[in-house]
Amino acid sequence: MHKHIFEAMKFKKDSLLLLDQTKLPFEEVWLELSNADMIIEAIQNLRVRGAPAIGICGAFALYLSIYNDNKLLVDEISLKREANRIKGSRPTAINLSWGVDKVVDFVGKCINLNEIFDFVYSLYLQEIEINEKIAINGAKVLPEGSILTHCNTGSLAAPGIGTALGVIRKMFQMRKLNLVYVSETRPLLQGARLTVFELERDAIPYKLIVDSASGMLMRNFMVDAVIVGADRIAANGDTANKIGTFMHALAANFYNVPFYVAAPMSTIDFSIATGEEIPIEERDKAEVIRCMSSLTCKDDTSALNYAFDITPAKFIKAIITENGVYSPNEILTLLD
Ligand SMILES: CSC[C@H]1O[C@H](OP(=O)(O)O)[C@H](O)[C@@H]1O
Questions:
Q1: Cβ count within 10 A of residue 241
Q2: What percent of the chain has pLDDT over 70?
Q3: pLDDT digits (tens, 9 = 90+) for 220-254
Q4: Which residues of the chain form CATH 3.40.50.10470?
Q5: From the candidates 231, 238, 269, 309, which is the catalytic residue?
Q6: Quick one: pLDDT at residue 5?
Q7: Is 238 a catalytic residue?
Q8: Is 84 helix (H, G, I), strand (E, B) or coil?
Q9: What DSSP assignment string belongs to 183-248?
Q10: Interface pTM (ipTM) of the complex?
Q11: Cα 110 to averaged position of ligand 1 atoms, centre (Å)
């Protein structure tokens, strides 16, 4: 594993240890979560966030529900009700459903609690290997130079090296990277707070920018490629990602800057044809009228807070997965 990779979650037989990402970068606070309710709260309040990370946490939440009430092992209806409750904590990232459904399927074959724990932990370890492959595949294809990225897609969002930020880490190791432009990512500042935190730990050169600066940088030939993560990819390659991604893609497309998406195959939702079918999480307006805890306008200000947007496949040069690098129109062919 990359020497700078750090663990943002740890697993005990009776609880999940989680680095509270709402406190970063100012404090490193670890939480001990002993039931699904606590993990659901952590997911909903982005104490843990990032599609692959919440997928693993969702899977572990269902394991903890079973640990706390073994009757779920022999009551399929109650097990699926609990699974749906956990899956409902955030709607956009398909990885949450993927992780929870993996446990439901496993319990259908094995009701030994220790083996269920081992299975969830194996999913986590597999994610680390998957993200290492994504990083290698992506670093091979991205052009040398300065890379712009949005939100956080590192070890905090995806076990191990991360996804899009994993590609950036690998580029740095390969001496292909000049500079990272980190889009701050309003309103919750995953870029400014979390990606900067990760890049500083790795001593990777970066510049933090406001989200709306990306067009100017591209117009001035300062960006050689854009790479982002994904929360759900439709069968035609349309991609849901953090709000603001689409604006970067528009600018990149206008200025002929290659735009890449990095994500595990588990992020692809083959059950939907286009991005129009991806549910977009709408969050509390309080996040928009504040910058972290400080009000930036009157508290009765009317606001709209979509947490994700859709980037149409036509704006995406390639989707980088652990299995390879694909143009959006190749995604449907991957359905095994
Ligand atoms: C490696 S997936 C990270 C993905 O998740 C982020 O959203 P959130 O911080 O709300 O969980 C963002 O869309 C990232 O690209």
A1: 29
A2: 99
A3: 999 999 999 999 999 999 999 999 999 999 999 99
A4: 135-334
A5: 231
A6: 66
A7: no
A8: helix
A9: E--TTTTIIIIIIHHHHHHTT--EEEE-GGGHHHHHHTT--SEEEE--SEEETTS-EEEETTHHHH
A10: 0.96
A11: 32
- Let me know: does 315 contact 259? Beta carbons within 8 Å: yes
Reported as a pLDDT band with limits 50, 70 and 90, residue 307 is very high
The CATH class that applies to domain 9-129 reads mainly alpha
In angstroms, what is the C-alpha Rg of the chain?
Answer: 19
d(Cα 258, Cα 269) in Å, to the nearest integer? 24
pLDDT of residue 6: 78
Q: For residues 135 and 159, give the distance between their C-alpha atoms in angstroms, rounded to a whole number.
A: 12
The residues near 178 (Cβ < 8 Å, ≥ 6 apart) are 144, 145, 146, 205, 224
Backbone angles phi, psi at 227, to 5 degrees: -135, 135
20 in Cβ contact with 31 (< 8 Å): yes
pLDDT at 293 over 90: no
CA of 299 to the centre of ligand 1 (A): 27
Measuring from each residue's beta carbon to the nearest atom of ligand 1, which residues come in under 6 Å? 49-52, 151, 153, 157-158, 163, 190, 228-229, 231, 241-242, 307
pLDDT beyond 50 at 147: yes
Query: In the predicted model, is pLDDT for residue 284 greater than 80?
Result: yes
DSSP bridge partners of 269 = 234
Angle at 18 between CA 6 and CA 87, to 5 degrees: 115
Distance CA 58, CA 61 (A): 5
What is the rounded average pLDDT of the residues 269-297? 96
Q: How far is the CA of 112 from the centre of ligand 1 (A)?
A: 33
The two three-digit tokens of residue 315, written as one number = 């704006």
Domain spanning 135-334: which CATH class is it, in words? alpha beta
CB neighbours of 28 closer than 8 A, spacing ≥ 6? Answer: 19
Token pair belonging to 158: 């995806």
